[in-house]
Amino acid sequence: MPDDRPSPSASAPPAAAKAAATPAASARAPLAPPGPRAFGAVNWLGLWTLYKKEVRRFLKVHFQTVLAPVVTSLLFMIVFSLAIGAQRGEILGVDYASFLAPGLVMLGVLNNAFANSSSSLIGAKMMNNTVDFLMPPLSPSELAAAFVGGAVTRGVLVGVATAVCIAPFVDMSIAHPWAVAYFGLSAALMMGAIGVIAGLWAEKFDHLAVVTNFVILPLAFLSGTFYSVEILPEPFYTISHVNPVFFLIDGFRYGFIGAGDSDLRIGVAVTAGLNLALVTACYLLLRSGWRLKS
What we know:
It contains twelve helices and no strands. It is an all-alpha fold.
């Protein structure tokens, strides 16, 4: 009877194939040691990550950082409109409420852009969390862009929310969109950069309160937010034109009502030059590590 079982020679792999398979199965490619990660001219991933952190930081408490400023602006609108609106008459060709509304929107942009960048830095310093943005491979320009960008986002968001809430009661139609966009973004950028400088300088929250109460609020309230500077006597009329916030509010108001108290060309030049100087100062201070690394 024939044997149907396979012979050992038939079931076994050829010797040459076995010899070739053994080294291939056992050989392992050596792992290269980790090296520095290569970035281009800008670390976009790191910049975007820090920017998102800044935005999420204020959105987590949006009742405090977005809705509360809107309520404050609405209260200003109600109080001033009822107190002096009917007796004030027209200003720059519009009723007092239409004159006041753009100033209140700009006030929210200024205060919240400053608060975002300054509180972020002083909070990190107080809690010893500066390592979170000093250790990653972020250049001083990328740090400045992220902090100021977060401040601009909060300022613009509060401004838009304020305008939307005021619009049902006041005519908020836009006469010159370019002026609204330019002066609104310039205001947020300016206060965001000032907030970075103040946050680096301050060693506790009391120092920020000094800057807010003795610098930011006087500049904002004495810049034609609630009145036209045309009613000011000398030398206060001339002094008001030295205030950079006056050009921001006046240009922003021009975008809505089509009239202003100053030459817009001067306002554009002053705000652009000041913003360039402030952003450069932020970059230089972050590069030096002033009050961050010492």
